[in-house]
Amino acid sequence: MSDASWVDAPLVDAWSQARARAAHSMQIPGHKMRYGRSAETPFAAGVLAPLIRDDIPLQGGADDNVFSGRVLERAEELWAQAIAADHARFLVGGSTQGNIAALTSVVAPNVTICIDRTSHRSAHAGLVTSGATPRWILPRIHPDFGVPIGVGADSVDMTDAYALFVTSPAYVGTITDVAPLADLCHRQQAVLIVDQAWGAHLDFLPGMGAHANGADVVTTSVHKALTGYSQTAVTSLRGGRVLPSTLSHGVDLTATTSPSATLLASIDATRVALQRDGGRQLALVTEAVCDARRTLSAIPGVVALDEGLLGCSVDPLKLTLWVPNTGTTGAAIGAELWSRGIGVEAADADTVIMTVSIADDPGTVAELVAAVASVVESLRDTPRKPAPAATWQVEPEVVLSPRDAYFAHRRRLPLREAVGQVSTEQFCPYPPGVPLLAPGERVTSEVVEAIEVAGRSTRMAYCSDPTAQTVEVVAEVTERSL
Ligand SMILES: Cc1ncc(COP(=O)(O)O)c(C=O)c1O
Fold first, then answer.
1. 95 lines ligand 1 (CB under 6 A)
2. How far is CA 265 from the centre of its chain?
3. Class of domain 280-379
């Protein structure tokens, strides 16, 4: 990575010029960065105006109406160069859009794809849009800590499969060894797609990004681990197995025609900041997280998960604590931290997950460590048996393809009475957004139990009944084995 103090920033420059320009706009956005001409109401002047002040569109804002400045294209090229990819597309629909776009462009109806069952709900959505047939694979689960520790090449049967889709890093921060999976795929000309939503920073650490390890298509959320605005993500490709035009079909199918230059420029600005800084900030926070893991593991009952304990690579910026031996739950620790003004990324019975980023420094990490130590002492109880999350261990009974089930005629049943039926919809504890039940899968008593248990401590999302008491099942099933 270059540490030059100058780095080209085409989109940031164009955005800054648009913001400074006193244009007489007769096009979108309709608010024209103001409400009325001058004598605004107090609400319009005090609330609306500051809220919309930076809302600059790409078309007719940062670029002209015919995109003669090519500012987005140039920023995408520079991002691709920075992460050793051949082609990149900026997204304002998050990695959700990237996963749906990647799957919809790489696979097709009735084509087999090997896919990690712990994938985010957006990958399941991509199976509906593409019509591909999933051959589900499960990551290895750590026997003591109950968390996923990567997909092993030995667990993937690529016979007749066109692509492999894995998630790395996992939500808990564990990293799959992508290189052997890339070899496995490339031996038969299959495509390796990696959902690296949580690892945008890994592309800026030598040898850690999925492309650097041979992945063909990779999606990252710039807003999760880096400093992009909410919703920003990038999908990129490397090598010749997928054409840029093929990936672009999927991106364009799923993208708005009115993207915000403000969101897009924050992706460009993030790259520029990382390159100008030459990796110093990433190194600083990486060291702070190492220190934090050591300090937190010294608290009786707290285990800060790291490579040594898990036997796989771990995201250097994820702080995942395993807490059954403190006697309390991760959820209770998370709630107490929230009440003290510290939001954690996720918490369940056994774990608390915290996302450190380049926005942090040793001081903010040290404050977090002190708060966790104090909260654990305030909640300490008799050590209890672990209760690992069901999310990581779903072994579905697949009856229909996700697409067939999604488009099937539906009827609604109480969840418990639906045992034996085929679901048309997802039930996702959120976070982490991995479905316990997905379209095409049989409703079993184990799944119903898992939904009920998870629903007591977290939001059950993406099911049509927000109370998760009922489910829409396939009205008429013509069973066919997949
Ligand atoms: C593994 C994974 N992939 C994709 C996504 C979707 O990302 P986004 O929120 O950027 O759409 C998430 C969201 O949490 C995720 O955890």
1. yes
2. 20
3. alpha beta
Q: How far is the CA of 296 from the centre of ligand 1 (A)?
A: 27
Domain boundaries, the chain: 93-255, 280-379, 394-474
How many angstroms does the Cα of residue 144 sit away from the middle of ligand 1? Answer: 26
* Ligand 1 neighbourhood includes 432 CB (under 6 angstroms): yes
Same fold, 93-255 and 280-379: no
Give Rg (Cα) of the chain.
23
| Residue listed under structure tokens 């968390």 | 147
Class at the top of the CATH hierarchy for domain 93-255: alpha beta
Q: Per-residue confidence of the chain (482 residues) as pLDDT tens digits?
A: 444 556 899 999 999 999 998 777 888 888 887 777 656 688 888 888 889 989 999 999 999 999 999 999 999 999 999 999 999 999 999 999 999 999 999 999 999 999 999 999 999 999 999 999 999 999 999 999 999 999 999 999 999 999 999 999 999 999 999 999 999 999 999 999 999 999 999 999 999 999 999 999 999 999 999 999 999 999 999 999 999 999 999 999 999 999 999 999 999 999 999 999 999 999 999 999 999 999 999 999 999 999 999 999 999 999 999 999 999 999 999 999 999 999 999 999 999 999 999 999 999 999 999 999 999 999 999 999 999 999 998 999 999 999 999 999 999 999 999 999 999 999 999 999 999 999 999 999 999 999 999 988 889 999 999 999 999 999 976 544 33
CB 150 within 8 A of CB 177: yes
Ligand 1 lined by 100 (C-beta under 6 Å): no
375 with 437: CB under 8 angstroms? no
Assign residue 440 a region (left: φ > 0; alpha: ψ between -120 and 50; beta: otherwise): left
CATH code reported for the domain at 394-474: 3.90.100.10
CB 388: neighbour CB atoms within 10 A?
19
Is any ligand 1 atom within 6 A of the Cβ of residue 98? no
Residue 237 and residue 239: Cα distance in Å, rounded? 7
